[in-house]
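A reminder from the course coordinator: this example appears on the midterm review sheet, so study it carefully.

Given structure:
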């Protein structure tokens, strides 16, 4: 009888040690209550986003404002016209037809603007695809500056996106240490008696 209890206890210690060493199971992506997500927005809220700073995201409901900011419905210089766009969680891809050729301009938060061609107070942008006429960049910069005042980025604090894996690991290690101590004490009693 003492042997069966000892075997079960070792299995428990092994399982706890394995859980402590392997870490927690991956967290399911969750959405913070304060940030709604449109069905067409491809993004992962929560999970293991180990970013060094807050993340600026575009919340649903800004589609018309953003379309206006990128020049929808206007004749732009160089024979360019806005033909469509895509809003991702933290960037906008605006597509234009310029003299029969497709040009894609990417807008993002100014803090995430590596390689940006231009910056405004709330946006940075760069050509992602194609070769636009030179006057398109200055026209877009002017249009964005004139219309960006109503737009606000939603900042998602790092703490809401990062799982508390370190606390789980610490608790697992403490439990494993206690289990090991109990197993050692039980082994001594069995050996002595």
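Designed residues:
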């Amino acid at each position: 009888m003492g042997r069966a209890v000892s075997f079960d206890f070792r299995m428990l210690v092994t399982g706890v040690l394995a859980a402590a060493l392997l870490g927690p199971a991956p967290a399911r992506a969750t959405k913070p209550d304060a940030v709604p997500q449109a069905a067409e927005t491809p993004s992962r809220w929560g999970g293991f986003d180990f970013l060094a700073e807050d993340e600026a995201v575009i919340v649903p409901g800004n589609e018309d404002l953003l379309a206006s900011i990128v020049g929808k419905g206007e004749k732009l210089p160089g024979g360019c016209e806005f033909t469509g766009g895509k809003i991702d969680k933290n960037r906008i891809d605006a597509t234009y037809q310029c003299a029969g050729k497709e040009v894609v301009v990417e807008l993002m938060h100014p803090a995430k603007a590596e390689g940006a061609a231009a910056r405004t107070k709330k946006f940075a942008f760069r050509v992602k695809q194609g070769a636009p006429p030179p006057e398109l960049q200055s026209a877009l910069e002017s249009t964005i500056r004139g219309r960006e005042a109503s737009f606000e980025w939603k900042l998602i604090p790092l703490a809401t996106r990062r799982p508390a894996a370190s606390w789980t690991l610490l608790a697992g290690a403490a439990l494993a240490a206690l289990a090991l101590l109990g197993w050692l004490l039980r082994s001594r009693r069995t050996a002595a008696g």
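Residues 2-24+163-192 form one domain. Confidence is low (pLDDT under 50) at residues 1-7, 25-52.
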